[in-house]
Design a protein that fits this description.
Length: about 290
């Protein structure tokens, strides 16, 4: 305290408190962006490590999430949108599955035809193989020609060399995918011998079953064989001539997933697997957001 001219002068010193260390909330935004980017990177790497069918299921979900899984009446998120179930159209899902399988079957058809064309042995044996994508699925038929004994001797389920070679080549290609397989045996309209206990029904079934064994030895997993059918002469290839050699054939069918014949338990099983997959993907997303 100083004295000037008889008056006391009071000097007041004020200290300004300075803080250090706070920079606002911008770092939180940057950190949140970093965590989101890392989560997206993890999801991409996780999906890349999955098998092709799982990738296709994820692709189908994100292409049409509402049509892929049963929707709900409340909420805005397609992953979890409330608790009031409401039915939705399943047509978009079937279209996605059909389109994916159509592309897969076309690729497989070309691969099988290329492999068969490269076989000199089959050309010498004059083995006819018809590979088509039909409304049922991918159908591969070993069709008899000439006298009708290229693949099997007349009235016998014992395979010829052409049958073994063809089924081994086809089986090696079928082993590269995971899809149900149905085998069919067909005969012509000629009566089978005099034995009423063994008819064209038994013959067609035995030939289809013999084909199954060769396909499995070529790499087709036993669990993929859904059916072995014997049709006898009830489904001729040449409608106007029941005795035509082309009616004697073995058919290998990879059916579409949504055909009327498989719209029951098979479709329910496939839907259950897809819903489970979507649920597994949705859980980490719900936790993150």
């Amino acid at each position: 305290m100083a004295v000037r001219g008889g008056k006391k002068i009071v000097i007041v010193k004020r200290k300004i408190a300075r803080s250090s260390g706070h920079h606002g909330g911008s770092w939180k935004v940057a950190y949140a962006d970093f965590v989101t980017a890392m989560m997206a990177f993890f999801m991409v790497m996780w999906i890349l490590g999955m098998d092709d069918r799982t990738k296709q299921a994820i692709e189908g979900y994100f292409a049409n999430p509402v049509g892929y899984k049963r929707g709900f009446g409340a909420g805005a998120s397609p992953l979890s949108t409330g608790s009031a179930p409401s039915p939705i159209q399943k047509t978009p899902l079937r279209m996605i599955v059909r389109s994916t399988e159509q592309r897969q079957f076309e690729t497989l058809r070309k691969a099988i035809l290329a492999k068969l064309a490269a076989s000199d042995s089959l050309r010498r044996l004059k083995a006819e193989v018809d590979v088509q994508v039909t409304r049922e699925g991918l159908r591969i038929e070993l069709v008899e020609s000439g006298r009708g004994d290229v693949y099997f001797p007349l009235g016998s389920s014992r395979m010829n060399v052409a049958t073994m070679l063809t089924l081994q080549l086809v089986g090696a290609e079928l082993a590269t995918i995971d899809h149900p397989v149905a085998l069919e045996g067909h005969t012509d309209g000629a009566k089978f011998g005099q034995d009423a206990a063994y008819t064209n029904w038994e013959l067609s079934t035995d030939r289809a079953n013999a084909a199954r064994r060769v396909l499995q030895s070529a790499g087709v997993a036993p669990g993929r064989v859904a059916e072995v059918r014997g049709y006898a002469d009830t489904k001729p290839r040449v409608l106007g001539n029941p005795l035509a050699p082309a009616n004697r054939r073995i058919s290998i069918l990879l059916p579409f997933s949504d055909t009327p014949e498989r719209a029951g338990n098979a479709e329910a099983l496939a839907t259950s697997k897809r819903d489970s997959l979507v649920s597994n993907i949705a859980q980490p997303l719900r936790k993150a957001y």
